[in-house]
Specification:
The protein contains four helices and 13 strands. With 249 residues, the protein is an alpha+beta fold. It has a six-stranded antiparallel barrel with strand order 2-3-4-5-8-7. A four-stranded mixed sheet has the order 6-12-11-9. Strands 10-13 form a two-stranded antiparallel ribbon. A hairpin with a 3-residue loop joins β3 and β4.
Length: 249
């Protein structure tokens, strides 16, 4: 069941919100936010509109535009990411995907406290439940990133840009976690990243893309330390004698 709401942007609304000059078909939803320190979720009721035309898709998820309607009538443009049906994801998989982004941001804050030439951040990711739809489906939702999108590396050890920061950040997370976690699959707009992947040494948690020791090994084998790694005084990662997964240091 849907209701119609005429939403207009007031003159005092933040510039990041877009005006809606026409009536929107909105729906009720619940937005979940994760507290990393307390390791618990909070929730709030919101109203928004999910657009039908997809923005893009990856191997496991497909993205759509979602407009969150603020209490003042302004609209925050967001991206909603749903698992594809063939992935057969469960509700906990959606929450795990969001947790990855919160944990990555915790590493980013630690990274930014060091003397690095460039700071990094991860866009805040929430879990959205569409309460008026059959089965109350879940998805991850985050503010839209305006600008040119770049993919720097993936969770298989691939590197796609010459930017030294993503590789150094991944190396940093490996050492900062006492060699238990590694953040990779970095992509986004300038210094703002989204949709990362965390590989854990024990292979547990952090979503369906966690490749465990194999994913860690592939990153370590492809990484070449750069000036940022040396500035952070990270232990050098010796290149492997042959390509492919190797021993983890």
């Amino acid at each position: 069941i849907f209701f119609r709401s005429s939403c207009f942007l007031s003159d005092r609304a933040p510039q990041s919100c877009r005006a809606v000059r026409m009536a929107l078909t909105c729906e009720h939803a619940t937005k979940f936010t994760y507290d990393v320190q307390r390791e618990r979720w909070s929730q709030e009721a919101i109203v928004g509109q999910l657009h039908q035309r997809k923005l893009g898709e990856g191997g496991m998820r497909v993205a759509y535009r979602f407009d969150e309607v603020c209490p003042d009538g302004s609209v925050v443009p967001c991206v909603a990411k749903f698992f594809k049906p063939e992935v057969r994801a469960h509700d906990e998989d959606v929450f795990s995907e969001a947790v990855v982004q919160y944990v990555a941001e915790t590493f980013a804050q630690d990274f930014n406290r060091r003397k690095t030439p460039r700071k990094v951040a991860f866009v805040t990711c929430h879990v959205l439940r569409l309460d008026e739809r059959r089965g109350r489906p879940l998805c991850c939702v985050e503010p839209e990133l305006p600008g040119r999108f770049e993919k720097h590396n993936n969770n298989f050890g691939g590197n796609f840009t010459a930017d030294p920061t993503p590789g150094a950040f991944g190396h940093f997370t490996w050492e900062a976690s006492n060699r238990l976690l590694l953040v990779c699959d970095l992509q986004g707009v300038r210094e703002m990243f989204t949709d990362p992947q965390i590989h854990s040494y024990d292979g547990r948690g952090f979503g369906m893309g966690n490749m465990g020791r194999q994913g860690i090994a592939r990153f370590l084998n492809s990484h070449r330390c750069n000036d940022i790694c040396r500035t952070l005084q990270l232990p050098p990662l010796c290149p492997p004698a042959r390509p492919g997964p190797g021993p983890i240091g």
